[in-house]
Write a structure and sequence with these properties.
The protein is of the alpha+beta class and about 725 residues long. The protein folds into 3 domains: about 30-175, Glutamine synthetase, N-terminal domain (Ubiquitin-like (UB roll)); about 185-580, Creatine Kinase, Chain A, domain 2; about 595-725, Four Helix Bundle (Hemerythrin (Met), subunit A). The structure holds adenosine-5'-diphosphate and magnesium ion. Magnesium ion (MG) binds near residues 341 and 471. Magnesium ion binds next to loops.
């Protein structure tokens, strides 16, 4: 029975790093397989090139004639690189990416065939998409969904397929994917931020949101990972006793990268280069066999696509190296889980990062405007921001004594805290010339210096300002970044829109100068946003108490957290900013609740199976050995045998106790699951799974893990933590 474990271990012991061939100059490879600006210049007519560039920069429509030219050029380029198929590549609400390949090949009669790819195939497709989650937007009998080309994210060659990034919408126009609402949110923040920028610089025509994600993951030997049914089916271990050594020595973090992992990374990075994913940083993370990868930041839509593509690519490259990538937020109990920090900022078409102070007092006032408006947006929408990162798997990290808590707060560092408190003292209404000069010289004017020596870092904060960007750290490692980016850009857009209205009103009604009005509004925002600012230890229990006093939400589980998505306030927000209709918002809520139920349901089944069919029979086998031993001792020693068999008898009893506990708990878990399955209302059902079914996981695990420590190692069927985490 324990064969698989030992076979896997034997295979692992013989592994060697897989050789990789790497170009010395990565810049030579960069974007080689992307139909990017430079490829387009080469392959497109001037008209077609300008048509696409206008669509990218100004959102203008691409007409059919140009689409035909583009598709034909794409085909020529792709064929020259050995490509045979094309696909519309999209991100449905399953959490994975989707693709359906069609060959360029077409028959033309007379026994002949050609390679064809027309404009209409580039622009729009109608995949048979009835099985994607839609939250009730489509009935299956009316299952039509369309994919439509997103020219702002360039087509790329993946394997031998030309992949065209697309949005995915229902026949009736509702979004069925992550990209569509993200694009709308990016438009909203562009509109609102550009309008605010005009206070400072009339030349600003466009504001772009940037994202730099940092992806954490585990790398486990493939044979070992495959030997565990829980990893195979749920992406995490549902049981397993902690090894004697975990991460307590901090010897993995930033340590020398193990050879097999390093070769995987080099191979992966080469693939990333070809696909135009600008990966830059790699290192060991805190937990054993945990690593991180980060790119240079990009425009948010592109960065989101690149992260989705990367997650897929990682799995493929890993299998070449006989490794398995675990993206799950908490694959192993007792050691750190994985997140995906989302570094976010806004910048103008004139090249200014709006979250970075400039050289003049006026540009610093612009920085403060965007900085404070972001804080206010988070303050007013903290619960929604928590909701957007909620998932069954991320619940294991947030609020579970590990970075970061389920409470959203903003960290800005001591220096900027001081700046805000000084601004809070700005006079109401008109400012005296003296006050203005003072503000310019001593507060606003000093900001760049302040930031230079602002080395504050607070790793426990879920939303931290880090010099020229905000870093949203609570995002889960499996998440599609479109979700947090959609919400963040929408709430900031809404906030900036309000800011503009308030500033204009003060200029109009109170006859204030522009900068006076801005100072006045910012002062009120600082006062109104105090509850969200927190500089202390986010992991501490004192913060939970303090946060409660401040009225901050602390939704520890997904069913509780998700509710904020469909509050009247959230629905109105998404509608007002043209990001999602009420139908779209509620559909997503239903999909996520359902997904939560299914994930817990799968885990419950797998746990029941492993505990009942692997652990218990193994324990019985071992117990039988002990019984045999005891009877043997009795044969030899007669009535005196208990003197020699005391320990064994104790073990036999303890094993029986654990077996009994496992069986009763599995039965009870199955019963509550059956009851939960009968519930129609998805919200009530999710709560039943969360509060009635899930609590059995830890209880069952406890007894299994105890048995792992008792049973003869050579009989134990499940690959152990020390083997999974320390095989390199
Ligand atoms: P950390 O100290 O958190 O690791 P880094 O400076 O290494 O921070 O950056 C992490 C990520 O943030 C990278 O992807 C980087 O490109 C990105 N980043 C840097 N500046 C910005 C910015 N202005 N806007 C968005 N992302 C940024
Ligand atoms: Mg970071």
């Amino acid at each position: 029975m324990s064969k698989i474990r030992f076979q896997a271990l034997a295979v692992t012991l013989n592994r060697k790093p897989v050789k990789v061939i790497e170009a010395t100059r990565r810049s030579d490879l960069f974007g080689e397989n992307v139909f990017n600006e430079s490829t387009m210049r080469q392959y497109l007519t001037k008209d077609a090139f300008n048509g696409v560039m206008n669509a990218i920069d100004h959102g203008t429509k691409i007409d059919r004639k140009i689409a035909d030219q583009v598709s034909s050029a794409m085909k020529e380029w792709a064929l020259s690189k050995g490509v045979t198929h094309y696909t519309h590549w999209f991100q449905p609400l399953t959490g994975a990416t989707a693709e359906k390949h069609d060959a360029f090949f077409e028959t033309i009669g007379g026994g002949m065939a050609i390679e064809k790819f027309g404009g209409s195939q580039l622009v729009q497709q109608e995949p048979d998409a009835s099985s994607f989650p839609n939250g009730g937007i489509r009935n299956t009998f009316e299952a039509r969904g369309y994919t439509a080309w997103d020219p702002t994210s360039p087509a790329f060659i993946y394997g031998t397929t030309l992949s065209i990034p697309t949005i995915f919408v229902a026949y009736t126009g509702e979004a069925l994917d992550h990209k569509t609402p993200l694009l709308r949110a990016l438009q909203a923040v562009d509109n609102a931020a550009t309008a605010v920028c005009k206070y400072f610089d009339k030349n600003v025509k466009k504001v772009t949101s940037s994202l730099g994600w940092e992806q954490e993951y585990f790398l486990i030997d493939k044979a070992l990972a495959d030997s565990r049914p829980d990893i195979t089916l749920t992406g995490r271990t549902l049981l397993g006793h902690s090894p004697a050594k975990g991460q307590q020595l901090d010897d993995h973090y930033f340590g020398s990268i193990p050879s097999r992992a390093l070769n995987f990374m080099r191979d992966l990075e080469t693939e990333c280069m070809l696909l135009g994913i600008p990966v830059k940083t790699r290192h060991n993370e805190v937990a054993p066999n945990q690593f991180e990868l980060a790119p240079i930041y990009e425009e948010s839509n592109l960065a989101v696509d690149h992260n989705s593509l990367l997650m897929d690519l990682m799995g493929k490259v890993a299998s070449r190296h006989h490794l398995k990538v675990l993206l799950h937020e908490k694959p192993f109990a007792g050691i750190n889980g994985s997140g995906k920090h989302n570094n976010w900022s806004l910048s103008t078409n004139t090249g200014v990062n709006l979250l970075s102070p400039g050289k003049t007092p006026m540009s610093n006032l612009q920085f403060l405007t965007f900085f404070i408006n972001t804080i206010k947006a988070v303050n007013d929408n903290e619960e929604l921001l928590r909701a957007v990162i909620a998932s069954a798997s991320n619940d294991h990290r947030l609020g579970a004594n590990e970075a970061p808590p389920a409470i959203i707060s903003v960290f800005i560092g001591a220096q900027l805290t001081k700046v805000l408190s000084e601004l809070e003292g700005v006079t109401n209404g008109k400012l005296s010339p003296q006050e203005k000069t003072d503000l310019k010289l001593n507060v606003v004017g000093k900001i760049p210096d302040v930031l230079l020596d602002n080395t504050d870092r607070n790793r426990t904060s879920p939303f931290a300002f880090t010099g020229n960007k905000f870093e949203f750290r609570a995002v889960g490692s499996t998440a599609n970044c479109a979700k947090p980016m959609k919400v963040l850009n929408t709430i900031v857009a809404k906030q900036l829109k309000e800011f503009k209205i308030e500033v204009d009103a003060l200029i109009e009604a109170k006859d204030l100068k522009k900068d006076e009005a801005i100072f006045n509004v910012l002062r009120e925002y600082i006062k109104a946003s105090k509850k969200i600012l927190f500089e202390g230890n986010g992991y501490g229990s004192a913060w939970e108490i303090e946060a409660k006093k401040r009225g901050l939400s602390n939704n520890k589980t997904t069913p509780e957290a998700l509710k904020a998505k469909i509050s009247a306030k959230s629905i109105a927000l998404f509608e007002e900013m043209n990001v999602m209709s009420k139908i779209e918002t509620t559909a997503r809520y239903e999909i996520e609740m359902e997904e939560y139920v299914m994930r817990i349901q799968i885990e419950a089944r797998v746990l029941g199976d492993i505990a009942g069919n692997h652990v218990v029979p193994t324990a019985i086998r071992y117990q039988n050995l002990l019984i045999k031993n005891v009877t043997g001792l009795k044969d030899i020693f007669g009535n005196d045998f208990e003197k020699h068999a005391g320990e064994q008898i104790q073990l036999i009893k303890q094993i029986s106790g654990h077996i009994e506990a496992i069986h009763t708990k599995i039965d009870k878990m199955i019963n509550v699951r059956k009851k939960a399955n009968k519930i129609d209302d998805v919200e009530v059902k999710a709560e039943a799974y969360c509060f009635k079914v899930k609590p059995y996981f830890d209880e069952i695990r406890y007894h299994c893990d105890k048995l792992e420590l008792m049973v003869d190692d050579s009989l134990w069927p499940l690959t152990k933590y020390r083997e999974l985490l320390f095989s390199r």
